[in-house]
Amino acid sequence: RFTRYALPVVSLLLALAAPIEAIRFIAFLVFFLIACAVAYDHLVPRMIRTRRLDPEIRGARQESLPARIRIENRLRLPLPRVVLSESPRQLYCDQATSELLLPPAAGIELTMMMRSERRGEYRYGPLRLHGCDPFAFFTWERLDREAARAVIYPRIYPMSLENRQGSVGGSITTSNPAYEDVTRFRSLREYTSGDDPKRVNWKASAKAGKLFTTEYEHTLSVGVRVLLTLSADDYPPRRRDQHVERAVEVAAALLFSYARLGHRIGLVAAAVHRPARLDPLLPPPRAPLARMDA
């Protein structure tokens, strides 16, 4: 900062007081270039605008997630060698730093690929812009403190259910009329004494000239519920976090597989936190071991 303001003053004094005309000319030229560089460094950071197009990204663990950023140049001059740096913090970024050439009075869109090895909720940012004037006298820097949010879910592995024993899930057809599903139409039959008047199909009865009763399919809906325990005592102390993560991924894979088959799914997760009984080599967790973001 001292050099930025001292050099123009010294060069201006030489341009005004030097006894030799050549020295005055060189000093005046240096003063002009330094003044342009100082004005450039003051103006450019104020004329660049950054905006996160994806303030929140969501994806699975170890999945590359695109985070788009738009950089706009409000000046009518091109801005070369503008360096944009992202602060991924606990995430991984394939290319956290990029050197850009901003066109005049226009903007460009940049995509950075973010990745995480662990599930959870993370914050990343801020964005840092820096560059220099065309003469490379001084450098400028701008910090945009807007942070973004990343929600990382368990990784989903393909799962094939090879065990054919037990009851199947989903909608099962049964002969028990107690499980009649009024959303599944089966047929029409003639009205008989004792039928519920609410089951009379008045549209079909008006066309046929006699009463008809609507019949529905008898189905039994069997859902899927996964029970997940996350208590520390249920896992061995050695590599406990890996065992917990594996259990969460198995539960997620089961729920995802049944959801793709059209079944109703549910999850019940329970955890008992007893810091005194944990392995002393493992620090107690600072946050809940499980979180389901619906």
Main beta-sheet annotation: 4 strands, antiparallel
Q: H/E element string? A: HHEEEEEEEEEEEEEHEEHE
Report low-confidence residues grouped into runs of 5 or more. Answer: 276-294
Shape assignment: elongated
Q: What topology, given as strand order, has the largest sheet?
A: 1-3-7-5
Distance between the termini: 52 Å
> Helicity, in percent?
10-25%
What percent strand? 35-45%
Query: What is the β-strand count?
Result: 16
Structural class from helices and strands?
alpha+beta
Oligomer: single chain
Q: Give Rg in angstroms.
A: 35 Å
Mean pLDDT, all residues: 80
Number of helices: 4
Explain how this protein is built.
This protein has 294 residues and is of the alpha+beta class. It is built from four helices and 16 strands. The strands form five sheets. The chain has a four-stranded antiparallel sheet, with no helix packed on it. The protein has a four-stranded antiparallel sheet with strand order 6-4-9-10, with no helix packed on it. The chain has a three-stranded mixed sheet with strand order 2-11-8, with no helix packed on it. A hairpin with a 6-residue loop joins strand 9 and strand 10. The C terminus is likely disordered.
